[in-house]
Structure formats: structure tokens, C-alpha cells
Amino acid sequence: MIVVLTGGTGGAKFVQGLAALVPARELTVIVNTGDDLTWWGLHVSPDLDSITYALAGILSRERGWGVEADTFHCLEAMCRMGAPAWFQLGDRDLATHLRRTELLSENKTLSEATSQIARGFGIETRILPMTDDRVETRVLTADGELSFQEYFVRERYQVAARGVRFEGAERAQAAPGVLQAIAHAEIVVIAPSNPITSTGPILAVPGIRQALKETMAPVAAISPIIGGAAVSGPAGELMQTQGLAVSIAGVVRCYADFLDLLVADERDSALGTPVEGIAVRYTSTVMKSEADKTALAR
Amino acid sequence: MIVVLTGGTGGAKFVQGLAALVPARELTVIVNTGDDLTWWGLHVSPDLDSITYALAGILSRERGWGVEADTFHCLEAMCRMGAPAWFQLGDRDLATHLRRTELLSENKTLSEATSQIARGFGIETRILPMTDDRVETRVLTADGELSFQEYFVRERYQVAARGVRFEGAERAQAAPGVLQAIAHAEIVVIAPSNPITSTGPILAVPGIRQALKETMAPVAAISPIIGGAAVSGPAGELMQTQGLAVSIAGVVRCYADFLDLLVADERDSALGTPVEGIAVRYTSTVMKSEADKTALAR
Asked: What is the ipTM of this complex?
């Protein structure tokens, strides 16, 4: 069993690559839920959705989120009614949030809702939220705290971040199957996701970091940093708020206590091994085509 | 002030005709909510929606419900996920239900939600739900009770109805403004709606029938029955379950205690005045074109 820890668009692309190589039932994906939000009264789980759509083969290539070729007629109608519209939900995408919200209102857990939605898409790979409890990534700015989506989507990460915290993480429990999946994995892979706000919330759930330390499986991470910058998104800025170098050395520091192998971009090979005892393998980590995704996953 | 009591598609067409003749602020529309349902976790008010869309000029002419030229991409995605899909919500239509559900979850009343949604559409006419309380039209059949939408949409009224009851009606209060609007009207018009399940629930709300008896305004009703049959829908069958003739005489019996004038179709003129003391005016009551609607309203 290959176990992937993931969040964000880079993670979804990587999981697509893996899914093309590995039988669906031999893959378990553990997903960040710190970005979840209530929007138009619906429970939206952006990272769970991206993985679900990626595995269903309907993730929008153009946008990197939502459903391929989706329409936005409901959103346009919401705008005309004066509803907030900075967070965009497509019409087909809406079905997922309606279904999830309804299942949660029937007292199903987020794990159960996720698995029921995945079955609806014919997905055989196991998709696990990191927790069934509410953990909310909060970004600290000079003007107060923002939810991750307020920071990332509404403000397009143009406000200066001073730090990040994971509201509710200390009381959260890993979702059913998460610790066991890590313990019994053949290999654990940390996707090329933002180490602060995509994999950071997962590692903040009590027990998960410890499970990564204890597992017999090798743990590999793919760097989301190439040279001195994130491939996309605010990973660089957010790493700096934690006193981390925006480099593969900074990535390794996030995972040093359990990491066996870092997969970094060949453009970083001149830097040498950043931390003793952690192997580094250099390859091309940029995922533009389907071939790029599978090559990186391989 | 012209006050209309309405429900269903015939009522929405008639209100469109009236709205073309009367200044928006001189019209108050009191709407059946007995058909309301929770669908995909959303509070759907089919009759309020039809009136809202009619007054916004976006009611689908082809379907008679929902938004003109709407798409059904969310519905299709729901179907693929195995969700029930016999009740159809278009993508633009969904925005209304999302907004209403969110407002209700913020402890707004149905009246407040209705008025806020109407403002969002730029509607100046006052749209009042009959009540802010839950009243549910239940159709009794040999196999048990159905909600109105189960009977009307899911079963296409092909199951034999034995009767109708309005769950919760005896405890319901007329929504703010309803009794006052009737009391201070210049004229009250009962739209050509199903007298059992469209105007029936309105009249079942305590105080409304009494207000119609007491108002100084003349009360007119437009017959939804032409000859021996309903213009559309199950009005005929449902009238029979109440021991009513499927005729203008049957319609008059529903409203006899407060009615001053029945507007009936010219094809029924041979029948003569069905009840003493109630005037009958014959005209064409079929509304196919916009001109038909305004002619009937005039």
C-alpha cells in the first residue's frame, strides 16, 4: 500500500500521476482539511474535492480546482442576488458540496461522506480526511486572522502573513484508518504540497507525526520548492513566517524527524544534501503534462 | 392595494398578467407554502419561487417553473452520484434555495428571506408567504401519505388520492402583513389556482379565512376549472376527494363564505350562476400568451 499525504493543487496533480501507475486499491490518500469552509451554507472541502476530482479524472486542468468544463450559472445568480462570490463554486462542483453537507447533517462523519462521494464517482482508491474533527488553518496578519481561503482566494495572498495556526488541532483525532494506513504502508509519500498550510495541518493532528516516525515504511517527500521559490502559491512566504529557508533545506526541516528521502528538482542539485541522514534524489519535479506527473510519481 | 392569493403555475401566470397592469408597489401577493420541501438539504419553496421568478421576468415559459433557459448541470452531477433526482432544480434556480436556506439557518423568518431574495431580484411588489411556520400539504393515498411534491412531481398525480390534510396548519400563524393586507385591500383576488392544494393551505392558516370574510374589499376568484376539468394539474381529482363537483359550482363552494365574484371561463356560461349572492363574470380564462394573461388580469 502506498500512502500519500497531500493538500493543494500540486498534491492533486501528483496523486493523478500516481493513480496512473498504481492499482487504485493499492493507494491511500490522506488529505488536508484545514482549508475547509462553510460557503453559501455548504461544507466545502477544497483539498478533498481536488483529490476526488483528480481520481475521477474530472479535475479541471485549466484551473487546477473544480470540475473540468464546469459552468458557473449558480454563482452568477448568487452574484446578482448580492451574495458574496469571491469563492467560486461551479454548477457540477456544487453537487459534491450539497451531497457532503446533507450527509454531515444526517450525522455522517466527514470520512463517511468522503467515502460515499468517492463511491459515487466510481473511485476505488481510499481517500481519508486527516480528521473528522474541525481543524481550521488560520493565517495571522497585521489586521487580524484570516481563514486560509480568505487569505489564499479572497486576498490572493497579497496581505503579509505573520504566522499560521491550526485552530482545533490539539483536540482533533486522526480520522479512522489514518494511523493504521501509515503504520502498514509500504511507502509513505508527502506530495509536493505547501509544507505549512497543506501538509502542516495534517502533521498537527495528534498522532500522525508520531505514526510517521514509527512506521517501518520509508517516508519520502517531494519538494514543492524549486530553487528559492514555490512552484505555485504562498508556500515561500508562509515558510518564512516559520523561520524556514525557502529552499529544499527548509522543506527538509519541516519533515526532518521522520523523513528518509527528499525528491527535489534537478535545478537544486548543486545545493548538495541539506540534512545528514536524509537522502536526496534529484529529478524534474515540474508537472505540466500527464507524462510529467507519472514520471515524477514513478 | 390589490391583494392576490396564489399558488401553482396558473397563479404565477396570472400574477404576471397583473404585474403588467398594476404599479409594482400596489400589488401584494400572498403565497402558498404547503408545497415547501427540503431537497438536497435545501429549503425549496416552489410557489414562492414561481411568483418571484414571474415578477422578476425570468420564470421559464416552457416549464412553468424555475428560471428561463436554466441549465441542469448540478442535477446531472447529483444523478451521477446516485442522489435522488425526481425533483429538478436548475443551476440558476439553486442560488435561490441556497440563499433561502442560509438566511433561514441564520434564524431569519421565511418572510424575511423571501423579501431579501425578492429585493435581490429588484422586485418591488410585496411577496408574503402565507405563514412563517411549517405547514405541509399531505396527500392521503391507499398506500399512505405523500408530501405534495411526492404526489405531484414524483408520482405525477397518477396515484389515487383519498384526501388532503395540512400538517401543522392549526398551530400556524399568518405571516406578518398577511391579515393586514387582506383587511386594507381595495380588492382581493384568488388566482386561478388549485383550490385544494394551492389556495387550500392558505385558507387553512388560522385567521386568513376570517379576514377574507371581514374585509371591506370585494373578493373575486378566478376559476381554475373550465367545463368539467382543471386547466392543468390534479385540481379535479383532489376536488372530488373533498366531495366537490369538478365545475365552477365546486370552485364557488370552496370560497362561498367570503366570495363576491367568480370569474369563470366563457365556455361555462351555459351553467348559469352556481350560488346565489355570488356574481359570475364570464371571460376567456385560458392563459397561453402574455396578452391572455393581461386580458384576464384586467
From this structure: 0.90
